[in-house]
Specification:
single chain; mainly alpha; globular
Length: 98
Amino acid sequence: MVEITDVASELTPTIQMTYDEYDAMVERFERVKAGGKVPVYWPTIQQIDEFEKDPEKWLRFCCYLHEMNPEPSNNTEKYSRRNLGDFINRHLVLVDND
């Protein structure tokens, strides 16, 4: 018997990263942002649906937006941030630095 969680994990590609790797990625994001004016961008749900077609390609970009964008200032931005977080949670697995 196949558990639903097993089927779901087969259908949802995930990227595995250690906590240290994630922290290093965020530090790179901070250097990029400090290097110049990076515009704020909140993707629409339709754009996030496109990201779902190739999560490996878009995951780091979504992490950048989620980590580096300022706090949302309206409901549309809050909705986008929540959808970015959901996308990241579906496709990124953080593991200990063993």
